Amino acid sequence: METKIYGPGEADIEEAASIIMKGGVVAFPTETVYGLGADAFNEKAVKKVYEIKGRPNDNPMIVHLESVNQLMMVADEIPEVAYNLAEKYWPGPLTIVLKKNPMISKTATAKLKTVAVRVPNNNIARKLIELSSPLAAPSANISGSPSPTREKHVVDELGGKIDAIIKGGDVSVGIESTVLDLTTEPYILLRPGKITFEELQDFLGKGKVIKKEEAKKVAVKSPGLKYKHYSPKAKIHIVKKGELERFIEKSKFTSEVIVIAPKGVLEMEIVRKNFTYQGLDELAKNIFSWFRKVDSMGVKTIIFEEVEEKGLGSAIMDRVNKAAGQK
Ligand code: TXA
Ligand code: MG
Asked: What's the mean pLDDT in 15-41?
């Protein structure tokens, strides 16, 4: 299949929108990761997305809106708190789970009674939706590989398999949106992200929101979470802060390793190439890209220095633990 490659201009987005309206599948940038979108009301188009990604069909998709005004098209019995969160965080990397509107594709919501929705903070994405329809869109990668954060990731992995790709440069956040379930009380943070648990707790009130680890029966609530995600081929060793050098010495690796750690902590000679960052925002923005890079270099071992499990650090550790095959 020929994959059309578009830029951020209005005429290009119009063409991409017409592809969506004809039941096609289009990759587009968001602020978190690239998404692979289909018209959320077109059952056949949504099925194609599952097929292309090799995504298990019990893993529901997020529906992307142009603005909060579209919420009623996709959700039902919308509580006040949804509008409060929308006003504070949309457009932005917060996904909320609500009771679904029956018009939405059953496939997109994996036959659940709920729907996950967000308004992305990216002009290309919102224009595309405005000119077409709310978009059911998972991350634009083959299931199991790291989420795509640069246009090249999408072109390399999905070129020839989808109708079109809109290039929008590197994403700004780098890890997927925070997912918050509003259909039970207390609300459940199903997936940590750039909008942190601590922030949500401040906004909603203490005790109003709990982490998924604290909630029982989450496996039933968010089927997608049981799958292993974001895995590079390389094996990831997670090492405690300050124990990097000792770990490397002790392990006596015979082949090349790549270390991911804050700038300045690496001095030993054994490490030739490595990835360093200043601050958690920079780490979040690059982590998936670095996983891909390590694989493309053929390196088999990643050593990751743990970050503190709070704020954005919780979201990063969630992704790294999953990538390492833990949890
Ligand atoms: O930042 C993001 O969220 C990106 C961009 C493209 O928006 N999208 C993304 O989609 O990460 P995906 O499909 O990779 O992850 C969606 C997550 C999955 O963990 C899924 O199980 C959960 O959202 N989810 C979707 N619908 C749900 C629902 N009705 N109830 C509970 N969880 C749901
Ligand atoms: Mg994904």
From this structure: 98
Residue matched to tokens 């994959």: 3
Measured CA to CA, the distance from residue 230 to residue 93 in angstroms comes to: 18
Looking at ligand 1, which atom is closest to the CA of residue 64?
7
Written as six digits, the tokens of 1 are 């299949």
149 touches 289 (CB < 8 A): yes
What 8-state DSSP symbol labels residue 69? G
Say if residues 61 and 116 touch (Cβ distance below 8 Å).
yes
Beta bridge partners of 211: 189
Determine phi and psi for 57, rounding to 5 degrees.
-80, 5
User: How far is it, in rounded angstroms, from Cα 162 to Cα 165?
Assistant: 8
| pLDDT for res 327 | 44
Cβ–ligand 1 distance for 115 under 6 Å, the answer yes
Atom number, ligand 1, closest to the C-alpha of residue 193: 1
pLDDT tens for 91-126 read 999 999 999 999 999 999 999 999 999 999 999 999
